[in-house]
What we know:
Elements: H1 2-13, E1 23-28, E2 31-36, H2 40-47, E3 53-56, E4 59-61, E5 65-67, E6 72-74, E7 84-86, E8 90-92, E9 104-106, E10 109-116, E11 124-126, E12 129-135, E13 139-144, E14 147-148, E15 151-153, E16 162-167, E17 170-175, E18 180-182, E19 185-189, E20 196-198, E21 201-203, E22 213-215, E23 218-220, E24 231-233, E25 236-238, H3 273-278, E26 304-310, E27 322-327
Parallel strand pairs: 3-6, 4-7, 5-8, 6-9, 7-10, 8-10, 9-11, 10-12, 11-13, 12-14, 12-15, 13-16, 14-17, 15-17, 16-18, 17-19, 18-20, 19-21, 20-22, 21-23, 22-24, 23-25
Antiparallel strand pairs: 1-2, 1-3, 26-27
Amino acid sequence: MKKVFLVLIVLLCCATSYAQHLVATLEHEGNIIVFYGMDAFKQANNSAVSGDVITLSSGLFNGNAEIKKNITLRGAGWKGDKKTEIRDNISIKIPSSDNVSNLSFEGIQFSGEMYVDSLLHNPLISRCRLRELRFRNVFNGVFSSCYIEGVGQQYVPDTMHFQVTFSNCVLDMLGVHNMSFLNCIVGQNMSGSGHIFVNSILVGGNDLDYSCIAVNCVSVRENNSCFSKCNGTNNVTVPSRSSIFANYPGKSEYGYFITNTDYDDADSYELLPAAQTQYIGNDGTQVGVYGGDQPFSYIPSYPCINNMQVSNKSNDEGKINVKVEVTPAQ
């Protein structure tokens, strides 16, 4: 990893007039190509083949792109002043025959809609923020430590199916069926059927359908009807968000868990100290996003170059002064 970042620094130093702007690097078999500007992501994506790695600097990039290859896409994180954001819609259309590598996204805020319209081989989308996620075809994969404002699915034939696991995610509104939620916080569940909830917290929304399964979950409701129809064990109900969350988002105690207007970077979703020991999942850790073996985190798992300052010209020795700000890997 250190070797890759040293190479990136050298390449970026060679383009002194652009080095402080939006940057996307494309790594292919040890070679690195650098793109600049708001279209840098689109240009790197169009040039990539399966197995390539695209790394984005912090800043706002243009979207409206189709991802047709199993790439690794990395940003500087989705929270705070140094976040990486891709605006406009993203459509994932990877041929089912392409199993060279697995699709992987991390550390990015997707402010448009993300459409999944292909069979993916064990993709992993982690530590990202998505405004709208929609499934339109067969999908198999994991979302981990993500903040997702809405999850929906287009009409598909009965032969289609989704095998999706959300792990340690915060999800505002569900309009999907037959998915699994492990150590999640879930807002409005639009009468979804066939879901499996484990060690999760359900805030507001409808009662779980009879086809759903809930194990070691907590419902935040004014009444205790959330689990009355579903197949479940060891589930409990608490009367309000403030009775379980130390720092809960939202302007009111009930209704949707999070909305666009309610979101704040300071929201942590942490449980009260007493609740952390009182509401325990089947793995012995607290329910919610900080339980399990991979607690919620928005910090990327790799080092990120957040800022780079490069002198406009070289000195008498032909050297260029470079100042780099790097956030270490978690």
